[in-house]
Each structure stands twice: as structure tokens, then as C-alpha cells.
Amino acid sequence: MNQQETCRTWYDFKEWYRNLNNPLPAGWTRHTSPGTPPGHISWTYPDCPPPEGFGSHFYTHISCPSQQFWYPIPLRQPGARPTIRNPAVLLRSTVETAIFYSRGIYLHFHTPSVSIEDSYGRWAGILRPHRRSDLSEDVRPKMQPLELVAISKGIARNSQPEEPALEEWYLDERPKDGHLYEFYNVLWISWSGGYSYRRGIGRIRMDIWEQQKRKNIQLILA
Q1: With CB atoms counted within 10 Å of each terminal CB, which end of the chain scores lower, N or C?
Q2: Are 154 and 184 in contact (CB under 8 A)?
Q3: More confident residue, 190 or 203
Q4: Predicted structure pTM score
């Protein structure tokens, strides 16, 4: 992998290999999926949908041939010295936001969490505030709007034994139909002086998020 590839961001790296005509980095192999010919490696996770724009192929690397990827990822070369970069003070991005509400229901799992609903009173997901003081008995639906920012999509098998680290498994109201639990990873933010500040992280059901009145904003995260 040359210096240009090493310095790419993860996003740029992913976009580069969206084009099947671009050469693969050293050590990577492309496999056809689905319908892999007999005698070839087949995709291990048939119920796992690919990222948008991927899915016709998957990839393996010589260093871990049993691990499968939807696209090559940047890897550190043996013996290479790490590149030290100064951390950015502010994170800027165009993001999608929506308003949700706390139910005031406590969940004591790895960390205290609170159940979240939308403006129609439907269970939407969970949120982990960074400060215990934000988990107040006075927080009730429609009294404290929470502005959430979608940062990525997530997926898990709809099985508690297979995905034991998700607080949602312990809630009766969480929909349990289907083989997959699909969600958006979100940030809870607040604003001060034109900058946004992260106050918590969580997950919102994908179908509920996509039914909300969402808007795109220019986010400057301090």
C-alpha cells in the first residue's frame, strides 16, 4: 500500500473501492457474492445486508482469511511507523437531525440509559446520557425534546444470546419480529454559541427514524 493509500480517510478508502476497476491493495482478494461458484469461498452472513452500493462482491485479506469484508479497509503495514496527526478541535459535517423524547425509564445495564419515544408515543430506542444528572425523574414524554443526530446505520441479529451487549433486549416494548434489528446510531446534542455539544449516544429504530420530520443541518461539534 503506497503513501497515498495510507493517508486516505476511511470514507475515501471505501469510495475508492466502490469502483471494481480500481486495483486492490496488496494481500486482498475479491470474491463474487451471492451465487459464488462451487469450490470458491462463499459469504458467511447471508442475512446481513451490505452497505449501500456494495454487495455484488466481498473481500478477504491474507492476514486473516476467515474474516470477510464488504470492501478493503486500510491496514497498517508491518514495521511502518505510525503517522501522528494533531486532533481537530472542531468536527464539521452536514447531518440529519430529528426530535425525540425521553420516557424517564431507567435501564441499569453497563451504564444507566433511558428509553426514547417519538412524538406519537411510539418506542423508538435508547439513549445513554454522559452525565447521571441528565437522567432525571422529572423527564417525561413531550416535556424535554431531545435533538438527535444520525451518525451511522447499525444492524444486529434479532437474538439476545447472539447480541448480548444491547440494552434493548430487556425491554418488552422493543419489536422482536424478523431476523434483524436495524437502527441508526445517534448523538444527543445541545447548542451553545453556535456550536453543538455531545450529551449522549444511543440507537433509534431505523423504521421509526425514517418516519420522522427530519432536517439537514450544518453541524459544528465542539
Answers
A1: C
A2: yes
A3: 203
A4: 0.61
